Amino acid sequence: MRGLRSDVMSDAGRRCVITTSWDDGHPLDLRVAELLAECGLAGTFYVPRSSQRSVMNSSQIRNLSKWFEIGAHTLDHLAIDRLSDLDASAQLAGSREWIEGVTGRSCHLLCFPGGRFRRRQLQLVSQAGFQAARTVELLSIAKPSLVSGLHIIPTTIQAFPHGAFAYARNAAKRFSTAHFASVPAAIHSKGWTFLAEEMLNRAINEGGVFHLWGHSWEIEEQGEWENLERLLKMMSSCRKHSKSVTNGELCGYPRQTILRDLPLAQAASAEKTA
């Protein structure tokens, strides 16, 4: 990685906000938590009660919530666009209640499994008690937008080696000038970490939100841990020109957790063997 360009070393860089989020609640999320803690970065973990893959147990989730924000991901990791309104409401409201019961903390945020939902279902999300919902809108450095009373949170980069076509398809789906402007960088990048660097430089230079997200199980399958660690360290080095926040803080909700450094990594590591 090349690091920050010289043209972003200005006061304008202080307008940049960095946030990260991690989906599915896999036990390997604890390894992500260790890396975030070591780099002094905030993170939001979206956890379902059950999934097609392993999910952290209640003790691990509770411990993680002491230092990081926990959001809902439906009860059973189901794409709500395939559900009736009745079933979708049960998955949504049940997931918020379950998270609050496990952590003892308020749960304001939801992440749609697979990023899939019907626009009219945003009303169901609000009725379930959520105030913000994270999408999988790539190549965005925009702040959350307010839609139907909900803060809708876009993302910038997924910790996954997507091909150029995936980014172009995402831009076409959003039909946004800002997204299309980022496609050339995606096409000519030398991998997702280089594209992440480009988008981070842009967020710092222009002012915006750099939002990294991913699945820990996917990072394991793709062998991307080393790349992730390098990127997080670079993001940490940018803290002089940016602010690291949780997804909730991004939407204006106060942080309920206290971010610490190495002791968290040790606590998270210990939980993996519990």
Verbal overview:
This protein has 274 residues and is α/β, with parallel strands linked by helices. The chain has a single domain (6-272), classed as Glycoside hydrolase/deacetylase (TIM Barrel), CATH 3.20.20.370. The chain contains eleven helices and ten strands. It has helices at 29-39, 58-64, 85-103, 122-127, 164-174, 177-188, 192-206, 216-222, 225-237, 247-250, 262-272, and strands spanning 16-23, 44-47, 69-72, 109-111, 132-134, 145-147, 150-153, 157-158, 209-214, 242-244. Strands 1, 2, 3, 8, 9 and 10 form a six-stranded parallel beta sheet that branches. α1 packs antiparallel against α11 (262-272). It is globular. The chain starts with 15 loop residues before the first strand and ends with a helix. Mean pLDDT is 86; it is low at 4-13 and 265-274.
Write a short abstract of this structure.
By secondary structure, this protein is α/β, with parallel strands linked by helices.
